[in-house]
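agent> step 3/5: call structure_predict on target 'Aldo/keto reductase family protein' (Amycolatopsis pretoriensis).
agent> reason: downstream docking stage needs a structural representation; sequence fetched in step 2, passing through unchanged.
tool.input:
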Amino acid sequence: MAWLRRRAARARTSLIPIVGPRTPTHLAGYLDALDVELADEQYALLDEVSAVRPGIPHADVAAALATASMTTGVFSTCRLSPCSE
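tool.output (status=ok):
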């Protein structure tokens, strides 16, 4: 919960953790978690291990563009507008 709350504070969009306690004991645990503070290293580790990796085809396309850009320079002007060769 501490990590989600910190991510929400840094997010550019809304980030609302969904909490679904099924018993009063679960609810008490969630409420106690609001007092937890993590070290910066713990936040960084949680960010790293939870990062979503795009995978295929995104990784293949990015690699192809990087290779083409390095070898020909063709894609260097293709960032946000149509390519002009």
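agent> step 4/5: record observation. Residues 58-71 form the longest helix (14 residues).
agent> proceeding.
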